[in-house]
Amino acid sequence: MKSCIVYLAQNTAKDPLYGRDSRSMLEKSIDLLFLNYNNKFNHDVLVFHEGDFDKNSQEEIRKGRNEIQFHELSFAIPSFLNPQEIPEKWDGVYGIGQRHMARFYSYSIFQILDDLGYDWFMRMDDDSFLHSKINYNLFDYMVSKGYDYGYRAMLKEPLRPTFGFSEMVLAYLKAERIKPVSFLQNFNLSLELNNEYFSFKGRIKKWLTNAIDRLAEKLNHDLNNWPAATEWNRQTYYNNFLVTRIGFWKQPEVQSFLGFIDRVGGSYKYRWSDHIVQTVAVQIFMSEKRVHCFEDWTYEHATIKKGKLEWGGMFVGLGDQDLTVVKEFQEKHGKLIANQ
User: Fold this and answer.
1) How much of the chain, in percent, has pLDDT values that exceed 70?
2) Is there a contact between 5 and 122 (Cβ–Cβ < 8 Å)?
3) What is the architecture, at CATH level 2, of domain 3-157+237-333?
4) By the 8 A CB rule, do 73 and 52 touch?
5) What whole-number distance in Å separates Cα of residue 117 and Cα of residue 2?
6) The most confident of 109-118, 302-311, 316-325, by mean pLDDT
7) Which residues partner with 8 through β-bridges?
8) CB burial class (10 A; 0-12, 13-18, 19+) of residue 284?
9) Phi/psi at 165 (5° precision)
10) Helix %, strand %, coil % for the chain, to 5?
11) Which is nearest to 123 in space by CA: 135, 113, 134?
12) Domain ranges of the chain
């Protein structure tokens, strides 16, 4: 089994979206990664970038840690999309770089890592910080437990960048006659049991409303009685940290789904994030028994703008409530901002 840890990074002291020091944050993230985990397990750490890390910058970040490798990428809008339909800034805020990133983690990364010979990868962002020790090999743990996808937290994706997404997913599943594993359990089914179904046996309506949990599996596999896309709950794996087996993503049916979403141009035209694409792919094709939530160590991923917490926060590990870094963060920024 060949495993790696992946970053997609910028060598800038002021990124164009949030004005934050991405270079310093990357160094902090990597330093904490090695301090609390990788000094013990020595996984390859791949830093993907667009050519803005020269040799001196690479050595400054590497600090003699030979596990760290730099890989240059060349991003471009796919040739099958019409560039005139791609806004320079989505909603006047999010530039093309942010959407290149979304496509990278939604679609491109799996083939890139497969070509490099890796079987598993763990994702970190430049603003992903491990604050407590992880004393076991995360990849070995996943394999030993039979897991294929691991995450640290779930957050509710904002409404605006999900417009049209669940409709498109449902259309694909219906057209391909795919019965998803758990995706349809993430809808408010009680609001969407249609009149046609009730007219088949009118008196069942009240019983169904009261017993919806027992019927969820049946409805989940009945292609004629699916919920409306507007009732999708938008709960997603907060995948700025994840651990996953690449072989799952290389399966033909998964590749077909990812390719379909990619050809629609969702990342570029609608800012459909890698959060929602990965979450739905897992919920369509992966058994829930193969998905794992890590809760035993403290992880920070917070979007802070002008000193204010806008999204995410500190995810406190079991028994870590008294960590100094946890107390300081909570005193300064308060609790998580995770739902909209």
Assistant:
1) 84
2) yes
3) Alpha-Beta Complex (3.90)
4) no
5) 7
6) 109-118
7) 48
8) buried
9) -70, -55
10) 45, 20, 35
11) 113
12) 3-157+237-333, 179-231
- Read off the pLDDT of residues 63-98 as tens digits, 9 standing for 90 and up: 999 999 999 999 999 999 999 999 998 888 888 998
Do you know the residue count of the chain? 340
Q: Is 258 helix (H, G, I), strand (E, B) or coil?
A: helix
Residue 62 has pLDDT above 60, yes or no: yes
**Rounded Cα distance, 122 and 91, in Å:** 31
Strands (E), the chain: 3-8, 44-49, 68-72, 120-123, 128-130, 149-151, 154-156, 235-237, 242-245, 291-293, 299-305, 308-315
In the structure encoding, which two tokens stand for residue 229, read together? 């896309």
Amino acid identity for residue 263 in this structure: R
Q: What is the pLDDT of residues 210-241, one digit of tens each?
A: 444 444 444 455 555 556 555 789 999 999 99
CA–CA distance, 225 with 196 (Å, rounded to integer): 9
Tell me which amino acid residue 270 is.
Answer: Y
DSSP state of 106: I
Please check whether residue 298 is in contact with residue 314, taking contact to mean a CB–CB distance below 8 angstroms: yes
**Interatomic CA distance for residues 247 and 156, integer angstroms:** 27
**How far apart are alpha carbons 190 and 192 in whole angstroms?**
6
Angle formed by the axes of helices 55-62 and 22-33, nearest 10°: 40
- Alpha-carbon dihedral of residues 123, 124, 129, 131, nearest 10 degrees? 30
Q: What single-letter amino acid sits at 232?
A: W
In this predicted structure, what is the pLDDT of residue 18? 67
| C-alpha distance from residue 162 to each of 37, 59, 92, 134, 312 (Å) | 35, 40, 17, 34, 18
Tokens of residue 234, six digits: 């938008």
With a pLDDT cut of 90, the percent of the chain lying above it is 70
